[in-house]
Amino acid sequence: MSDMNSLPLCGIVSEQQNVQDLFNGVDKNYASFHRSRSATGYNAHSHVSDNPRNIPVLFDITKPPVPNDVNNARSAPYRPHSNDHRGNPHYPVPDGERYSRKVFVGGLPPDIDEDEIVLSFRRFGPLAVDWPHKQEMKSRFPPKGYAFLLYQEESSVHRMIEACIEEDEKLYFCVSSPTVKGKPVQIRPWKLSDADLVLDASMTLDPRKTVFIGGVPRPLKAIELAMMMDKLYGGVCYAGIDTDPELKYPKGAGRVSFSNLHSYIAAINTRFVQLQLGEIDKRVEVKPYVIDDQMCDECGGEQCGGKFASFFCANVACLQYYCESCWGTIHCYPGREFHKPLVKEGGDRPKTRSRWC
User: Fold this and answer.
1) DSSP state, 284?
2) Per-residue pLDDT tens over the stretch 160-185
3) How much is the average pLDDT of 46-52?
């Protein structure tokens, strides 16, 4: 997490900079909108010219204008079976959007098996079929009526989308099984642009005012997460959906950064919150986002040989990083002996350690 560690502290946003103005898509104060993420963190200061997606000035966040290079590409003939773009992530796609190669398909017939799913969708390109705990189940039938299509090429996803039927802003495609013919199933592709939302490109995001959110519903977009968290706590300046590095598909977790300490403390004190939006109604866990390359705030590394801090204390009386030595010293004082340290647990998820004293 070296990128986040190098970020300076976040400035306080004026209360007049209401996040709802951005969601309505009419506030020109956010005309410099820009999304940017790296594999290890995120940065609100990249220039638009550095952005490979070349995201233009924002006026309607739900339907951003198409970049010029994509418009130019549309005038050229599209050859989906050409091999000259294999493995090229910058290959211009037909509608200007970038998608994950992993696609959710739901509402499958109960008697459809893996081979029949492949047969239904392989017309768009080579693919594999997966579902949760598939290897452990050793079954060829998706147990809950849904599965994931894993395409080799992103262009296959675009061809599938073009073949779908759209109804009520949802995509459907007809499949057949031994007992069901032509059943519409829901196709839910994931747009890469839905993974991040930076509300003000002039701000530096502060990891010490950032929360980790576990159990995020996979259909949830960054803008929707930002709206719900801002409604609950206010002061949201960034929202991101964590995606896996290979397929760029949501992992079921996210991060939200706040512009002020009050909103951050309110969020971590809640611990669990119910996210409700449309068909989404899910209880998620909110924890401080723990950085793995911070020095001890108490000794600056003097007591631990210059090593990074091992623990973070999320209690509002602390909100600091500590090495093992300083944790034991500080948390033996009355009132602090029951504080619990947080450490990193597999990627971005923080976990609670047993009490120290």
Assistant:
1) E
2) 999 999 999 999 999 999 999 999 99
3) 35
Give the whole-angstrom CA distance, residue 166 versus residue 201.
34
Is residue 79 exposed (0-12), middle (13-18) or buried (19+ Cβ within 10 Å)? exposed
- The one-character DSSP state at 252 is E
Angle 222-233/261-270 helices, nearest 10 degrees? Answer: 100
User: Residue 104: which of 163, 172, 153, 180 has the closest Cα?
Assistant: 172
Q: Which residues, in sequence order, are bridge partners of residue 339? A: none
Q: Does position 74 have pLDDT exceeding 80, yes or no?
A: no
Task: Report the predicted TM-score, pTM, of the whole model to 2 decimal places.
Answer: 0.67
Q: Average model confidence (pLDDT) for the chain?
A: 75
* Cα(353)–Cα(341) distance, integer angstroms: 6
* DSSP-assigned letters across all residues of 110-165: TT--HHHHHHHHGGGS-EEEE-TTHHHHT-SS-TTSEEEEEESSHHHHHHHHHHSE
The amino acid at 197: L
Q: Which two tokens stand for residue 106?
A: 């739901």
Q: Which of 3-7, 55-59, 64-68, 165-169 has the highest mean pLDDT?
A: 165-169
The mean pLDDT of 95-102, rounded to a whole number, is: 88
CATH number for 101-189 (one of 3.20.20.70, 3.30.70.1660, 3.30.70.330, 3.30.200.20): it is: 3.30.70.330
CA distance 327 to 333: 11
Residue 170, amino acid: K
Mean pLDDT over 6-10 rounds to 33
**Boundaries of every domain in the chain:** 2-63+193-288, 101-189, 302-352
CA atoms of 213 and 286, how far apart (whole Å) = 5
CA distance 126 to 87: 14
Q: Is the pLDDT of residue 11 over 80?
A: no
Read off the amino acid at residue 192.
Answer: L
d(CA 27, CA 29): 5
Q: Are 10 and 204 a contacting pair, CB within 8 Å?
A: yes
Tokens of 276: 């409700």
Q: Which residue has the higher pLDDT, 251 or 82?
A: 251
